[in-house]
Design goal:
The protein has 332 residues and is mainly alpha-helical. 58% of the residues lie in helices and 1% in strands.
């Protein structure tokens, strides 16, 4: 596949991720149908707030487990699961509105709202990861599109509702259920993670010729066991403990050459982690006629409970929570 076609595929994937993010931001449209829903169901302000809060809890509490799911299984399963949960949740609330007060108990309505929140978080995680992996050197720009669409999702649906069926909460809930299903399940067909192509770098003319068939030491039983122990989860770059400077052949008089080969040319796929190094993040360094690639240039891959041991994790967590909290207060 040519580089032009790969670029077009990446652009289409970002557009699809943006459409998915539009459906994920529908939780913020609760104020558009919440008052009519509470009046129809004869709910008090406390009961109405419980339904809205359940949707928010589903999005924020469900963010961690669905993020782990997307890292393990890839963006597409997350988008499919998210679209299904949002559809079931909104359609169930729509049916409760149609049947009137007493048709569905309050805990069930809270559960349906909770499902819409988890669904939005799951599909949004898949859209963000697809955009970031497709453009490793432009992640900020690539993820800006689905992030903006997520914030504009409520405005998008309420604008359609105000034109097509104003002041009709039942029709609006039906629009949310159908719209989330269509936008997620159609867009997932174009949601792809395209591998990054490797740029060819010619060998300098004055580079001394090395043996084309260097002797290689076979692995002992202990080394094979150690290699299996160092295997990481899918998508991360594996580490080969046998790759070292001493195992590389050196030409005569080339004492300055002390580089090591990269352990892997792993390309980002649908299960690779965002914090793993990818080909687009590791520039080629050349010093005169010598090209040196250091294994230490690999990005640190810290994940899971290991993050709790680093002060930077808590700093980023507090900063993100404070900044997003202020934004949510403005939206609400």
């Amino acid at each position: 596949m040519s580089e032009r076609r790969l670029k077009v595929t990446r652009v289409i994937s970002v557009v699809a991720a943006t459409v998915v993010a539009l459906a994920c931001g529908t939780n913020y449209a609760y104020s558009a149908w919440g008052p009519q829903f509470a009046e129809r169901m004869h709910f008090s302000s406390t009961q109405s707030n419980l339904v809205g809060t359940s949707a928010n809890l589903g999005m924020y509490i469900g963010g961690i487990p669905v993020g782990m799911l997307v890292d393990r299984k890839g963006p597409r399963p997350g988008v499919l699961m998210g679209g299904g949960l949002m559809t079931v949740g909104y359609f169930s609330i729509h049916r409760a509105y149609e049947n009137g007060p007493g048709s569905v108990a309050l805990p069930w309505l809270c559960l349906f709202a909770f499902m819409t929140g988890i669904g939005g978080a799951s599909a949004f995680s898949g859209s963000i990861k697809t955009s970031a992996l497709n453009w490793p050197e432009h992640r900020g720009t690539a993820t800006a599109f689905p992030l903006s669409a997520f914030g504009l999702g409520a405005f998008f649906f309420t604008s359609i509702s105000s034109i097509a069926f104003p002041d009709n909460a039942s029709a609006f809930l039906r629009l949310l259920s159908i719209g989330c299903l269509a936008m997620c399940y159609v867009s997932v067909l174009f949601l792809r993670v395209v591998p990054q192509t490797q740029t060819y770098v010619s060998v300098p003319a004055n580079e001394q010729r090395r043996s084309s068939n260097p002797l290689q030491r076979t692995k002992s039983k202990e080394e094979r066991t150690s290699t299996r122990r160092h295997e990481q989860e899918p998508g991360t770059q594996p580490f080969d403990p046998n790759t070292s400077t001493s195992s590389l052949p050196k030409a005569d008089g080339d004492s300055e050459y002390a580089g090591t080969l990269e352990t892997s040319n792993a390309e980002p796929d649908e299960t690779s982690s965002l914090i793993s190094s990818s080909p687009g993040d590791m520039p080629y360094q050349e010093n005169g006629a010598k090209a040196t690639v250091h294994q230490s240039s690999h990005h640190l891959d810290i994940r899971g409970f290991a993050l709790l041991k680093h002060v930077e994790f808590y700093q980023l967590w507090l900063l993100l929570g404070i900044m997003t909290g202020i934004g949510l207060m403005t939206i609400k």
